[in-house]
Amino acid sequence: MFKISRLPAETLPYADAVRAPVAAPMDIDDDLGEGTSLGGRRTVVTPGEVITSSKEYMRGHGTYVEDDNVVSSVAGTIERVNKLISVKALKSRYVPEVGDLVIGRIVEVGAQRWRVEANARQDAVLMLSSVNLPGGVQRRRVESDALKMREFLAEGDLLVAEVQAFFQDGAMSLHTRSLKYGKLRNGQLLPLPPRLVRRLKSHFYHLPPPCGPAGVDVILGLNGYVWVSLGTSQASREGGEGFDAEGVYRNENDEIDPESRQAITDVANVITTLANHDVPLSDALISEGYQWLRAADLEPGAPISKEVGDRLVYDLVLADE
């Protein structure tokens, strides 16, 4: 029998030689402004990197304390709120909040509820009582409505909804009790990193003609799902004149002319190019990107090559820095 014992690191003759040097804490006040990292220069840190002193700042998500220092535990960007320092991971699942606009896909139809995949840590739930009935009828849900649930939303259908609350297990509870929400048609879905979609006043954007004969509608879901579709009139989008209350759960797409298809493809290509270069999305940037494509006299609806994408991002984002 023998026993292996571990000597303290201080007793090893080469302890000082193998011990990794500790980086000096960065100056948080100079690197980041008050609020979040979006308000100042975005500082990227790696796991194990010293951020600042724990005597002056409190640690938040994505950090831990070691030797009186706040150290990053993930690779991401530093965010500061007063004296609270946290690190937002570069790659992570969507973390929902009440009031968020999300885009999801129906994965299961159950008893009085739908299960929705929304790019979060667990699937969301949409209750039958949380949707609008066809025609906008306001009444209590009865047994016949439960039997018609697949006529409203079936497996594979896409929808836009709002986070209403959370269940005890942390799952999102969604609702579509607004004419802006509901089943999505006449477009394409773009899955992007959630960090590229910021919380803004509105996540519904309309690019008017000449971006297609009817324009193009863009919905930026905070969970990283972006929907690009055929444009509609403002009255129709808000439930006014031209709004088809009986067709909100229709499965068939409308007839889309070739010019509109090309415009939808171009807008989707611009969004994908910006996301590939890690550029946060906004309505102004998407509109400028489409105008840049038309000014470059590129073929409508054609894919954007790497060289063209690099020039687009440089002209729209990097040239002003």
TrEMBL record:
Location of the K Homology domain? 187-233
Coarse class of the primary localization is cytoplasm
GO terms of biological process kind: CUT catabolic process; exonucleolytic trimming to generate mature 3'-end of 5.8S rRNA from tricistronic rRNA transcript (SSU-rRNA, 5.8S rRNA, LSU-rRNA); nuclear mRNA surveillance; nuclear polyadenylation-dependent rRNA catabolic process; poly(A)-dependent snoRNA 3'-end processing; TRAMP-dependent tRNA surveillance pathway; U4 snRNA 3'-end processing
Instruction: Name the Gene Ontology molecular function terms of this record.
Output: RNA binding
Q: Where in the cell is it found?
A: Cytoplasm; Nucleus, Nucleolus
SUPFAM superfamilies named among the record's database cross-references: Eukaryotic type KH-domain (KH-domain type I), Nucleic acid-binding proteins, Ribosomal L27 protein-like
On the tree of life, the source organism's domain of life is: Eukaryota
UniProt keyword annotations, A-Z: Cytoplasm, Exosome, Nucleus, Phosphoprotein, RNA-binding, rRNA processing
Domain Exosome complex component N-terminal, residue spans = 44-81
Instruction: List GO terms (cellular component aspect).
Output: cytoplasmic exosome (RNase complex); nuclear exosome (RNase complex); nucleolus
Recorded hits in InterPro entries, A to Z, give: Exosome_cplx_N_dom, Exosome_RNA_bind1/RRP40/RRP4, KH_dom_type_1, KH_dom_type_1_sf, NA-bd_OB-fold, S1_RRP4
Domain named RRP4 S1: residues:
93-164
How is the quaternary structure described?
Component of the RNA exosome core complex (Exo-9), composed of EXOSC1, EXOSC2, EXOSC3, EXOSC4, EXOSC5, EXOSC6, EXOSC7, EXOSC8 and EXOSC9; within the complex interacts with EXOSC4 and EXOSC7. The catalytically inactive RNA exosome core complex (Exo-9) associates with the catalytic subunit EXOSC10/RRP6. Exo-9 may associate with DIS3 to form the nucleolar exosome complex, or DIS3L to form the cytoplasmic exosome complex. Exo-9 is formed by a hexameric base ring consisting of the heterodimers EXOSC4-EXOSC9, EXOSC5-EXOSC8 and EXOSC6-EXOSC7, and a cap ring consisting of EXOSC1, EXOSC2 and EXOSC3.
Spell out the family assignment given in the record's similarity comment: Belongs to the RRP4 family.
This chain belongs to the protein called: Exosome complex component RRP4
Organism of origin is Vanrija pseudolonga
